[in-house]
Automatic annotation (TrEMBL), chain A:
UniProt name for this protein: ABC transporter ATP-binding protein
Superkingdom, natural source: Bacteria
Annotated ABC transporter domain residues: 6-257
Localization of this protein: Cell membrane
GO cellular component: plasma membrane
The UniProt record lists the keyword Cytoplasm: no
PROSITE patterns: ABC_TRANSPORTER_1 (PS00211), ABC_TRANSPORTER_2 (PS50893)
Automatic annotation (TrEMBL), chain B:
Keywords: ATP-binding, Nucleotide-binding, Transport
Protein name: Dipeptide ABC transporter ATP-binding protein
GO MF, one annotated term: ATP binding
Protein's UniProt keywords contain Transport: yes
Domain ABC transporter positions: 4-253
Keyword match ATP-binding: yes
Pfam families named among the record's database cross-references: ABC_tran, oligo_HPY
A GO BP entry: transmembrane transport
Family, similarity comment: Belongs to the ABC transporter superfamily.
Length: 329, 325, 300
């Protein structure tokens, strides 16, 4: 299956703030094939969450604007879709799981009531069938006592259980695309392992594409087929998962991998990228990573690099210019 | 040489259930004993709610204690008067998890760093600024930051300020409560390096509280693994990762995400959730999730025993029938 | 790749964050909200009127030429007409501005200081002090505010100082309650734990860490409560307990005008409007101040 489900071209998003206009997303390109799991890796401020909100049509209407590019979902242009039209997609064909399972569930409704909402919206079903479908899906995500759970409230469940409920909510309408925004960051390690296992299993059972947004390279290594690395509002590198870990082309990706404690000798200084992520208003005309990059040279400060490709492996770094092609190590 | 010794520390909370229901007792820290040697980094690991942060706070008397002893350089901290404890704080400091919440938003960096020197009356007032500048340089900030407020800094820079505040008094002992888990990945390693460097330079002893096992493996000397308020395993860091004994520790280590897609991990996925600490399971509190649970585990609380030299764990697998493992 | 050093490069932009003057910042924020502007405008006008009223007013507010009594607006230079004694209503309104502003501000400050001290004491020291103080607050809050003010001013007697004191006696509870809950919230913050861990003495934590962080809510509350006190003063004066005639105050102008409500509408309409506009202005400005300064809304 190589059919493209989601295609983002040259996406640019502006935000109005008290201080003026900033552009946290500056030309993002990627595509997601059917049945694929694509990881989006980045730190806070890289624009990974804003991108996912744009795909969901959930950007704050008054404060933000898509200023360039397009988002195509299932061959339909959804870039400037009206909210009413988006509602037909959301929860139905595109679903999303958020980081914080406590705040994403409404505390005053029972689990059953919340789960029946998307079915009421998108599917015509008898009340009895609906209940059956809900119990079914709760069992699928490994919730014990599903028949009782539907009458309970979110606060009666643990964090891991709530995230399972969120996953079942996202899966209810058999979406074609599931966006996971840091789905395990708020969870404990052993619970994270359970949830990742569950998501792998669901993925193998359902014909679904996954957009997996995270800052954790370890989670990416386990879950994804392909990865895009975001830095300061653009994609700096994109590659197949093994290729990215074995042969990172962008110094930022390389730095992230090298700074994992497991890749350093115990008790020694960790490799670290100096400095910090720039704010959107701090980015100059050159490469956004230049001020932290150990390889930066004149050209990097003078102008922003375009995307260079080595087969399927894309990177935005002057080192990859065809006549230069430096291999970093 | 032992710097700090904790004996049978207990911290129970009472939660009122309403007017006519009996109070529920939550055993946040339940009979915990360990000792920290001078100059080492001792780690407390575990999942949320296991009592590791509460333990850290009780050691500095930032929260009350139900019973037990905390001996710091031989003195029982719990017996000290409030004023004696206050002046002892110059030697025992803390670094907090959230660099956004732990700095007073209304103070400048200079005021934040001046405060410890002032309240403990260290140095002549005119020397204090010099000392502040020196410490700022050590943590990687500079003179021009002095008159700024915390909101003008990034998370990583704020954590550097928090660390500077903790080390400016030249303490012997620092409790670091998840000091890097709120930071961006690329900044985490900078802060870890800073902590390692400071330890070397000032001979610091750390109590490092964390849920991130890869960081714990990298920078600590000994580890105590906690589960529902109790220590279940305590051993040298290298030994713990090479040869974990307690089934919970094994699961915890195996749950750490791989660092390379090709890395094949034999994963022990625990069933179920961490039980409610207000209503912990009988016997071994881990038996509800343990893949090796036996009948005895449901009724008898396993004692902490030294099963190999320096390797302490509380599990029936090692007390009665070893062959089942 | 050689291992990099831990020293951070200072962000180039860090040095660019110049300290803009607080006034500039204030006005730039204000210019973005028309309600805030309106409120601020009204307050400025009120301040100017109360400071320079005696030179702005077209007539002497106390001068009562009886032959000019009950002139309708826009006759003989009396823009808003005259009252039953022939006094110029506009001039009396302007003179009344000063009374209202002094009472609003002084009461808010007095009630604010007393309420803050009590609220901080209750919130910071907790225990039985808190229980006792808050029960007193509860008891007082179960009394109608205006009734309490009337009782106290009946005991104290009329006069500007006494009306301020009686309004403050009625008003401190609001401050005490709000400030107490602010203190309760702040003392749970991690930077307070950090201060304790540093070894800062208890009283110093209160002065250096808690008080600066409740300053904003105090300012907001003062500005919002001012409107309440201005109305309350008018009500008390209307009932005859407050500022005594012939000193002009909006409340006693209403009182005196009520007998002429059918024949001469302007006697009560304009003082009434003055009260409405003033309260509106103070409240609009207070709302804007809250929206701007409140950290919860600020961090959008």
């Amino acid at each position: 299956m190589t059919e493209v489900l989601l295609e983002i071209k040259d996406l640019g998003i502006q935000f109005k703030t008290g201080e003026g206009v900033v552009q946290p997303i500056r030309g993002v390109n990627f595509s997601l094939k059917k049945g694929e799991t694509l990881g989006v890796v980045g730190e806070s401020g890289s624009g990974k969450s804003v991108t996912s909100l744009a795909i969901m049509g959930l950007l704050p209407e008054k404060k933000s604007k898509i200023v360039s590019g397009s988002i195509h979902f299932n061959n339909q242009d959804v870039t400037h879709l009206k909210d009413r039209q988006f509602r037909k997609l959301r929860g139905n064909e595109i679903s999303m799981i958020f980081q914080e399972p406590m705040t994403s569930l409404n505390p005053v409704f029972t689990i059953g009531e919340q789960l029946s909402e998307p079915l009421k919206q998108h599917k015509k079903m008898a009340k009895k069938d609906r209940k059956e479908a809900i119990i079914n899906i709760l069992k699928q995500v490994g919730i014990p006592r599903a028949e009782q759970i539907i009458n309970e409230y979110p606060h009666q469940l643990s964090g891991g259980m709530r995230q399972r409920v969120m996953i079942s909510l996202a899966l209810l309408c058999d979406p074609k695309l599931l966006i996971c925004d840091e789905p395990t960051t708020a969870l404990d390690v052993t619970i994270q392992a359970q949830i990742l296992e569950l998501m792998k299993q669901i993925k193998s059972e359902k014909d679904m594409s996954l957009l997996f947004i995270t800052h954790d390279l370890g989670v990416v290594a386990e879950m994804c087929d392909r990865v895009v690395v975001m830095y300061a509002g653009e994609i700096v590198e994109s590659a197949e998962i093994n290729e990215l870990f074995d042969n990172p082309l962008h110094p930022y990706t390389k730095g992230l991998i090298d700074s994992l404690p497991t890749n350093n000798t115990r008790k020694s200084r960790l490799f670290s990228i100096k400095g910090q992520v720039p704010r959107p208003d701090e980015i100059g005309k050159g490469c956004a990573f230049a001020n932290r990059c150990p390889y930066a040279f004149d050209k990097c400060i003078a102008s922003a690099p375009p995307t260079f490709s080595t087969g399927e492996h894309l990177s935005k770094c002057w080192l990859q210019e065809p006549e230069r092609q430096v291999k970093i190590q | 040489m032992t710097l700090l010794e904790v004996k049978n520390l207990k911290k129970y909370y009472e939660i009122s259930q309403g007017l006519f229901k009996p109070k529920v007792v939550v055993k946040a820290v339940d009979n915990v004993s360990f000792s920290i040697k001078k100059g080492e980094t001792f780690a407390l690991v575990g999942e949320s709610g296991c009592g590791k942060s509460t333990t850290g706070k009780t050691l500095l008397r930032l929260t009350g204690t139900t019973s037990g002893e905390i001996l710091y350089k031989g003195k029982d901290l719990l017996a000290l008067s409030a004023e004696k404890m206050r002046s002892l704080r110059a030697e025992m400091q803390m670094v907090f998890q959230d660099p956004y919440a732990s700095l007073n938003p209304k103070m400048t960096i200079k005021q934040i760093l001046m405060e410890p020197l002032r309240v403990h009356n260290k140095f002549q007032p005119e020397e204090r600024l010099e000392k502040i500048l020196k410490i700022l340089e050590i943590v990687g900030l500079s003179k021009e930051h002095l008159d700024r407020h915390p909101n003008e800094f990034s998370g990583g820079q704020r954590q550097r300020i928090g660390i500077a505040r903790a080390v400016i008094l030249n303490p012997d002992f620092i409790v670091a409560d998840e000091p890097v888990s709120a930071l961006d990945v690329s900044v985490q390693s900078q802060v870890i390096n800073l902590m390692l460097e400071l330890q070397k330079e000032f001979g610091l002893t750390y109590l490092f509280i964390s849920h991130d096992l890869s960081v714990v493996e990298h920078m600590t000397d000994r580890v105590a693994v906690m589960y529902l308020g109790k220590i279940v395993e305590l051993v040298d860091t290298e030994e713990l990762f090479a040869n974990p004994k307690h089934p919970y520790t094994q699961a915890l280590i195996s749950a750490v995400p791989a660092s390379h897609p090709k890395e094949v991990k034999e994963r022990i996925v625990l069933k179920g959730d961490v039980p409610n600490p207000a209503n912990p399971p009988s016997g071994c509190t881990f038996h509800t999730r343990c893949p090796f649970a036996m009948d005895i585990c449901k009724s008898v609380v396993p004692a902490l025993t030294e099963i190999e030299s320096g390797h302490i764990t509380s599990c029936h697998l090692y007390t009665n029938n070893k062959e089942e493992k | 790749m050689e291992t990099s050093t831990i020293t951070t490069t200072t962000n180039p932009i860090d040095s660019k964050v110049q300290k803009k003057s607080k006034f500039k910042f204030f006005f730039r924020k204000l210019s973005k909200s028309w309600t805030g502007m309106l409120g601020f405008g009204i307050i400025i006008i009120l301040i100017v009127l109360s400071l320079f009223g005696q030179w702005i007013a077209p007539f002497d507010p106390m001068d009562a030429p009886l032959r000019d009594r009950l002139l309708p607006p826009l006759t003989d230079g009396h823009i808003l007409g005259t009252d039953q004694l022939g006094r110029d209503i506009l001039s009396r309104l302007i003179a009344g501005t000063k009374v209202s502003m002094i009472i609003g501000l002084a009461t808010a400050l007095l009630a604010g200081v007393v309420g803050t001290i009590i609220g901080v004491t209750a919130g910071y020291f907790r225990g039985w002090v808190d229980v006792v103080l808050m029960r007193i607050v509860d008891v007082q809050l179960s009394f109608p505010f205006i009734l309490l003010v009337l009782v106290v001013s009946a005991v104290l007697g009329a006069g500007l100082t006494n009306i301020i004191i009686s309004l403050a006696v009625g008003g401190w509870v609001i401050f005490a309650r709000v400030i107490r809950s602010e203190v309760l919230a702040i003392r749970e913050k991690e930077f307070i734990t950090a201060a304790i861990a540093t070894g800062v003495p208890k009283l110093e934590i209160l002065v250096r860490h808690i008080l600066p962080n409740i300053f904003t809510p105090i300012i907001i509350l003062v500005s919002l409560q001012m409107g309440t006190y201005i109305i309350a003063e008018a009500s008390v004066s209307f009932l005859g307990f407050g500022v005594q005639p012939p000193t002009p105050a909006w409340g006693n102008m209403l009182n005196e005008g009520k007998d002429y409500i059918f024949g001469s509408w302007w006697l009560i309409t304009f003082p009434g409007l003055a009260i409405v506009l003033t309260t509106l202005g103070v409240n609009l400005f207070g709302d804007w101040l809250r929206d701007t300064l409140d950290p919860e809304l600020k961090g959008e």
